[in-house]
User: Which sequence fits this backbone?
């Protein structure tokens, strides 16, 4: 066949793969020769760390720009912080009221971002096929999950700065010695709540995730030991102490009020983090 008679190629020709395999887009082995979801990273793709950070930056910006997420992660915690600090209801026990309220609101902010926001966002991304699509890109499924976790931590940092600054303006005096312990508690709480959020998002329909995540947020706010110390929740105190919400709230109050070491609460958070991550890895469905 002459050069003029030869059909034009749809794109640049690829050299044959010495392994005889191909990626899902085609090649020596034909379309679909590799397992579903498998891809061969493009040599020209950005390094893995840069891909994860780019995804994390995108997720964090989307979260903070979304009106509902912004309301959940910053506006409602800020209103709750100011309202509880300036009133005398409910009874939060002994000590300066703001010193009890501020750690509890920070715990609520962590739960709002790591559990509620993550569950709802991931649930609808799964419904619309976004997770499946991103899982076949050079980012990969592991990179997607890593980016989500980094984005959650970035949003939590914004929450700590904004809500912590507001609390300081209202007279909060946290114990400096307890800040490192509080940081460990936040990391463990984030791991536990992200795992639970992914478990919820990966097993239920998006509409059910939306309803369940909001219901859990309300129930844990009311009686989960976040704002009201578990010692003040009456008959529910024993249950609240073994929930990730109560453990996180108690850990932050102990660390930031007295500078103490909340060993029991940290152990509960670590256990929840392991169980939630294991369950999410076992039952999470990408589509």
Assistant:
């Amino acid at each position: 066949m002459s050069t003029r008679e030869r059909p034009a190629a749809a794109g640049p020709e690829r050299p044959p793969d010495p392994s005889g395999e191909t990626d899902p887009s085609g090649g020596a082995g034909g379309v679909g020769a590799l397992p579903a979801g498998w891809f061969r990273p493009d040599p020209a793709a950005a390094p893995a760390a840069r891909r994860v950070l780019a995804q994390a930056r995108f997720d964090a910006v989307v979260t903070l720009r979304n009106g509902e997420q912004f309301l959940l992660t910053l506006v409602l915690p800020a209103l709750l912080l100011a309202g509880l600090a300036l009133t005398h209801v409910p009874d939060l026990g002994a000590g300066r009221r703001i010193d009890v309220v501020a750690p509890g609101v920070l715990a609520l902010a962590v739960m709002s971002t790591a559990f509620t926001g993550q569950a709802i966002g991931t649930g609808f991304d799964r419904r619309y096929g976004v997770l499946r699509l991103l899982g076949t890109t050079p980012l990969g499924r592991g990179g997607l999950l890593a980016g989500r976790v980094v984005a959650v931590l970035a949003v939590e940092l914004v929450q700590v700065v904004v809500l912590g600054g507001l609390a300081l303006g209202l007279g909060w005096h946290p114990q400096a010695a307890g800040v490192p312990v509080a940081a460990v508690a936040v990391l463990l709480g984030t791991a536990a709540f992200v795992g639970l959020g992914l478990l919820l998002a990966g097993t239920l329909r998006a509409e059910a995730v939306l309803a369940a995540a909001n219901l859990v947020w309300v129930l844990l706010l009311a009686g989960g030991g976040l704002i009201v110390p578990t010692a003040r929740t009456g008959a529910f105190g024993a249950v609240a102490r073994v929930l990730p919400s109560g453990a996180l709230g108690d850990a932050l109050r102990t660390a930031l009020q007295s500078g103490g070491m909340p060993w029991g609460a940290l152990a509960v958070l670590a256990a929840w983090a392991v169980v939630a991550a294991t369950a999410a890895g076992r039952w999470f469905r990408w589509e």
